[in-house]
What does this fold into?
Amino acid sequence: MGTTQTTQAQDLNERLAVDSKVTTGTLPNGLKYYIRPNSKPENKVELRLVINAGSILEDDDQQGLAHFTEHMLFNGTKNFPKNELVNYLQSIGVQFGADLNAYTSFDETVYMLPIPTDKPENIETGFQILQDWAQGALLTDKDIDEERKVVLEESRTGKGASDRMAKKYLPKLLADSKYSQRLPIGKDELLKKFKPDVQRRYYKDWYRPNLMSVVVVGDITAAKAEELIKKYFTPLTNPAKERKREVFAANPYKKQEAMFLTDAEQTSTIMLLNFTPRRVEADKTVGDYRNTLVEQLAFSALNQRFQDLAQSATPPFAFAQAGNDSYVRGYQALGLALMPTADLTSAINATIGELLSVEQYGFNSSELELVKKNMISRIEKQYNERATTNSSAYLGEYQRNFLENEAIPGIEKEKELYTTLLPGIKAEEVTVALKKLFSKEDKEKFFALVMSPETKDAVVNNDATLLAAVKKAFTQKVEAKAEVAVKTTLVETLPAKGSITKTEKNDKLQTTTYTLSNGIKVTTKATNFKSDEILFSGVKKGGTNTYGAADKATASMLGDIIESMGYGDFTPTDLEKALAGKNIGLMPSMGEITNVVSGRSDVKDLESLFQLNYLQLTEPRFDESLFNAFVSTMSTQLKFAKSNPQIAFVDALINDMYNGSPLKPIAIPTDADLKALNAKRAVEIYKNEFSTADGYHFFIVGNVDEAKLKPLLEQYLASLPATGKEPKYVDNGLRLKPGNNKFEFKKGTEPKSLVVAQYFGEAAYTEDLALKANLIGDILTIRVIEKLREEMGSIYSGGFSGSMEKEPYSQYIFQTQLPTGPENVQAILKQMDVEIAQLKDKGPEQKDLDKVRIAIVEKRKEGIKTNQYWVSKLQQLQFEGRSIEWFMNFESEINKISVQDIKAAANKFFDGKNSYIGILNPETK
It folds into this structure.
């Protein structure tokens, strides 16, 4: 059947049905539910409580209380007073923040709860928690007053240049709609003083079943989930006199307006150009769905043009992006965002010029074919993985179906629609679709905004000149985009094949390791975790430590430099087009002591991934003009980076922490660093580190067919040249400043501080000791949340991490970053000392050790059924030499660690010899 016939076979008036795998229903009280049984991951169910209410519904005296209510539901409900909810969930391996979370936006509030289902009582309690959130909040005066500090700390984290400018531009950007007056974080003065009854009023008005949905996806039967939903949510009631859930409109722009804002702490120049929002309806029919595909093609093709320009030898901008979203539910608006590389005028002309080119000459068929290939390839991959899709992938679309009526026909139907509709969509109608969003009326009514660190641009430096530049850009003469022939052969001449000289099976790990004729080792593990995923990683000893101060900048940025110039005959843009329709990707990177290539592929494109790997390893491309463009763009992006107080602090901190060593890590490249970059030297280093077979160990994990894999290993890996020089780890002698040191840095006008603490030293590495370091970091995180957040109200977020490294020397480090206010810094430092002293004196509480242990075990159970886990784990076991026996017995190893073991390890780690405390405070007024 031909393309036209296939397209015509789709009845455009056919209504989009709900995926048959989803059970939906509405309770008598109006609550809607969605259930999808899904066994990936095993023994876990994802629960969501979705409230069709957010900050837009707040009364004038409630600004910020939609979000405050979200906080309160973790701080006291009918069945879980005060902090018992978090305490209980941690006890079953659910981590606060990482797993258990929520968010509040203008129009909705969503609560997220993943529950392990290996114990039936866990599931029951999960639904009880959702019911408590829905209508069981205690909202006591005491709990509300204690939470004020935490919410104000969250508000504090958002303050700075972006926030200050947002207060000025939001009324214009949102055209004085109600949305401009209802930012979810609210107003600090109100948050400090509101009466608890005002919050209770919000909860009573809007937390009601006819504005709620419950989403259940995971390892549970539909019958069981429906039974629990009816049990826990049927009793919920709506208010006798319920308030209308008003839907607020987006206001149109009435004229051409521009705003040029500057702030001393802004790190780069960003421009937004927004056109009037249009009211849109969700897709209901196949015809609607086709129209959406047409628009997606238009934006994908336009953004590809922008990306081509950004990657060119004379980029007018570091990036430009067109979108069709808006800040208001139910509305869409054409919008542009860009970051200039030099002057604003050139960036504005180039961005608007592409819109005008489409308007006058249209899209061409070759650029649309590339976009179509990518769209079809993506949907095919989703379809191929339909039996192994993670539960979390479904949650968003069911949520949007409830809130926005987004269609949920299911991947089978969507794949059918893509493959039958896309081929029949012509360039002419894609052009028409974009022109509808960029009409004569749009050009007459828009809002242009620039946020910049300075006003020194030669031409565009205030409201009037910005408006003039945009208006003038609309009058420029433009050219049609030329049709481009795309070369698709990655390797023109196949290399001489090598051979497999040895094959070893490991029954414990269920892996096969091949030794190739050039010395490369390849370990493969066939899995069924994802039906259409193969992960690929190659690692060898080496890294930036191999190079001295003169090469430091080039080595540190090596991957980005090489990527900016391309490979073989392919510029980055050419390569992207050559790979259109292939779900593959590969990226080189240099760590301190290793060189890594990381990639992925679907099953059908595995040979293309091997070809790409061969091309990238053997033919790094030298292109002076593209290199200069890369450096110029970097220079523009970094010029004002240190205007941001935290960036400036981290940069100064690292310099002090390493005693100004020329080998210290580069946090923010300086002008001197950028001037030290050398394209020829980058290619030379890359060839030294990546292009030879010496010392490589590759890991291939996923839906691998060994019979098809072996010829690829011989053709594309065994053919890499070998020199016989075995690479090694290099210890370049760089160390943190010894002793107990404190560093204070003052920058910024907002009352914001940041406490950075590190405790470190050298100790003989063992896997047991490394695990204890990890556990201690997690235990201290619990203490930080309980003490610094819940009791003291001094932070909104923060935690500890503990780790050990064996190479290049055996070391451990514990670190934390705690955003706070200057008035809290000393109390936080004092409390951290108390928590560490207590850990050394008494060890952790047994319940805290149990919590962190079960969290690690639960994460491991889930991780061990993913390809990504095995790629990194096999690298640890078979490249770094970690113990396979210890790995196989991990649960018994972690379960035998006692309170006394943690206490002993804490005394070893926190020996008082080496610590580094960094404090960022605002400038003294």
User: Anything to note?
Assistant: The first strand starts at residue 23 and ends at 26.
